[in-house]
Amino acid sequence: MRSMVVWYPDWPVVASGVVGPVAVIQANQVVVASAEARSEGVRVGQRRRQAEAVCPGLAIVGRDEDRDARAFEPLVAAVARFCPTVEVMRPGLCAFSARGPARYFGGEESLARQVAEAVDAATAVVSGTMGEGCRVGVADGPFAGTLAARRGRIVPPGATAEFLAPLSVRELGRPEFADLLGRLGVRTLGQLAALPAPQVLSRFGWEGAAVHRLARGLDERPLDARRPPEDLSVEAELDPPVDRVDTAAFVAKALADRLYAGLVKGGWRCTLVRIEAESEHGESLCRTWRHDGTFSAATLAERVRWQLDGWLTGPSRPTAGLTKLRLVPEEMVADHGTQLGFWGGMAEADRQAARVLARVQSMIGPDGVVTAVLDGGRSPTERATLIPWGDQRAPRRRPELPWPGRIPPPAPALTSAPAGSVALEDSGGRPVVVNGRAEPSGAPARFRPDRGPELTVSGWSAPWPCQERWWDPDGHRRRAWMQVAVEDGRAFLLAAEGSRWSVEAIYD
Amino acid sequence: MEVAELLERARPVALAGQRALPVIPALTSILPGGLCRGGTLAVGSGPGATSLLLALLAGASAEGSWAALVGMPEVGPEAAASMGVDLGRLALVPDPGEQWPAVVSALLDGIDLVAVRLGGRLRLRPAEARRLAARARHQSSVLMVTGAPWPEGCDLSLDVVAGGWEGLGNGYGSLARRRVEVAVSGRRAASRRRQATLWLPDDSGRPEPIDDTLVALHP
Predict the structure, then answer these.
(1) pLDDT tens, A28-68?
(2) Between chains, do B165 and A412 touch, taking CB under 8 Å as contact?
(3) Which residues in chain B are closer than 8 Å to A491, comparing Cβ atoms?
(4) pLDDT reported for residue B90
(5) Which of A52, A65, A380, A489 would staple B163 via disulfide (CB 3.0–4.6 Å)?
């Protein structure tokens, strides 16, 4: 199958809409850099500090795949004018079968030129820049087509194997597998293709067999790929109509999970999925997404969310809310199963828990189920961040920094205690206050919480000061902390701010 | 022969790990067999109850089990982590809302340890309590309750009967460790009351057993 692949280099940079030297950062590391930034010495994998050091005018943008996908939708729409069955592989990369359109538009070269012009025009509207310009490649199959697009080449029919032969096995996009092949002395796709297929299958399993087919320039679609029975598609009526991305995303997740469950039941995996939507005014939208491997429930939900985001926020958004959403698996392969990792990996218990938690989210809302990740900060509530289940577990501040003035271990078991002022008195009944040097006016003897009886203090720590963000007029806080133990065996963490004491945490 | 039947034959007779969930060494003297799957467990509401609850989750969490805390918005994740709970396998449902018995029931389907704080908005009728206990038994999960007594009576109940922090003087020092006495009583095999002394937590923030002979040597 002749595949035409449209590739936009450094798409996350273009999608950010920033001109000049730009680096896209994820987890403090450069993941994509613009051509200007690269010429200054910014490299993928560098830390943010290093990148800023080599290129002082560097603009930093956070990684946002939703933004990339949203900005890519107008380009896909431009390509779809040449061939309606365009398949999006990821933001920045899409492919379609070139045979029919090439005949209509005067040959592959002419088609490639026209597609590139249309995509560049659409990009100019999206980002206001021309970027580096899109590249179009043609070869047999989407994998070879992608490599051809990276080089801007049109590989003649039947010459794909020769085109692939000198390329490195790293181009397969499977770093671990490429590493293994490298250690076995197989360095180019040609060397891999020369190995006998049965031996490759017995040594490397199904993944190896699929990769071997790609290296030989064969259609990456395995032989048993077939059009699925219609009943595997899933559909949701949206009532009330959905016009907000966050609501749509939630529906998308549930629908993707249903489709995935149906596929698993039949022993299938999906490589190509069509997303269809209908608006209240009868407009119908349709887009196809391809995965280089096979879709999992999470990647499927992500693609659907991206697509809905692109439709609902793009320039050609429907005039009314969406009333119907449908997912159709276009291409499926038999699931040969995966060998579970001997150590680690996702165990059955994790999968089961993930299902249950997603179900609870559907009952009480996506923010109702959270997981915690340890974070940097001084007060007990700042020491952990709660993240809705399903989102990436990443700390917001820098947990590895020392955070002077922080609460010493052990960590209190109850942190966000009901904030209420407490009265702290010395033995003469005078309120205890803390002066500017964090010295108490007297020894605390009695302690009266907001509600409940008076407690006798059995031990107390010297108050310690904690000044946060003195340079920031809004975020500035000056507090003194003190640990107090009472006679019934409990201990409290108190904070004095101004002349008020409050319970910040309980060592329960 | 049916596949299910084959699977049944191929399975080992009894996997110890499927019967009970492990507990940390500090609690093995009072829970020698670990936490029995399918049971209900009450943790008292006095001082130290939250730490005891987290310590009970720690053993199974370290071995790969999932745990969920329902209706406990104020539990400190940092304390949970230092007690030995794996935060990657701890789900928090701070406010389960009006339909909380349905939420707990759904969680029991796939999560080994589900802890609920009763009281406030979370009230329970005996019929619902019976249903949840049956759910836990059927799914081989452990249902833990704290905050208020379980209407039906639990298989096991644990309580901190005495405890006190050490390390804090009058105007000096800081909280270092807490010595607690934990008592367990229950039905059937656990009807004999057991008691143990442990650090909850010790100087390093972890729950550890106290060996009284060593304490006598180094008072």
Answers:
(1) 888 888 888 888 888 888 888 888 888 888 888 888 888 88
(2) no
(3) 165, 168, 175, 178
(4) 93
(5) A489
Indicate if the pLDDT at residue A83 is higher than 80: yes
* Sign, CA torsion A414/A415/A420/A426: positive
CA of B71 vs chain A CAs: smallest distance (Å): 11
Query: Which of A315, A334, A353 is the endpoint of a domain?
Result: A334
The pLDDT value given to residue B217? 47
Task: Give all domains of chain B, ordered by start, each with its CATH number.
Answer: 19-217 (3.40.50.300)
Distance from CA of A297 to the nearest CA of B (A): 18
Which residue among A368, A489, A505 places its CB closest to the CB of B76? A505
Give residue A180's pLDDT.
Answer: 86
A21 domain residue, yes or no: yes
Q: Measure CB to CB from residue B87 to each of A363, A369, A373 and give the nearest one.
A: A373
Domain around A292: 230-334
- Closest C-alpha among A152, A157, A163, A218 to residue A188: A163
**Which residue type is seen at A486?**
V
CA of A374, closest CA in chain B: separation in Å?
A: 6
Choose the final residue of a domain: A111, A129, A164: A164
> Which candidate from B96, B107, B174 shows the least CB-CB separation from A461?
B174
Q: What is the pLDDT of residue B53?
A: 94
* A349, A371, A459 member nearest B92 (Cβ): A371
> Quick one: closest CA in B to A353, which residue?
B110
How close, in Å, is residue A506 to chain B by CA atoms?
10
d(CA A409, CA A99): 68
Contacts of A21 (CB under 8 A, 6+ apart): A33, A34, A36, A37, A40, A42, A55, A57, A58, A59
In the three-class reduction of DSSP (H, G, I as helix; E, B as strand; rest coil), residue A349 is classed as helix
Contact B205 A408 (CB under 8 A): no
**pLDDT tens-place values along chain B, 219 residues long:** 566 666 555 544 444 445 688 899 888 888 888 888 888 999 988 888 999 999 999 999 988 889 999 999 889 999 999 999 999 899 999 988 888 888 999 999 889 999 999 887 778 888 888 999 999 998 889 999 998 888 777 888 999 988 889 988 888 989 999 999 999 988 876 678 888 899 989 888 888 888 765 544 444
Predicted complex ipTM: 0.86
- With CA atoms as reference, report the closest residue to B69 among A321, A89, A251, A370: A370
Give a yes or no: residue A345 inside a domain: yes
Q: A459 contacts in B (CB within 8 Å)?
A: 165, 168-170, 173
Residues of A in contact with B64 (CB under 8 A): 347, 349
Sole residue written with tokens 């003297």:
B29
* Sheet arrangement for strand A22-26: A29-33, A22-26, A59-62
* Nearest C-alpha neighbor of A297 from the set A261, A326, A325: A261
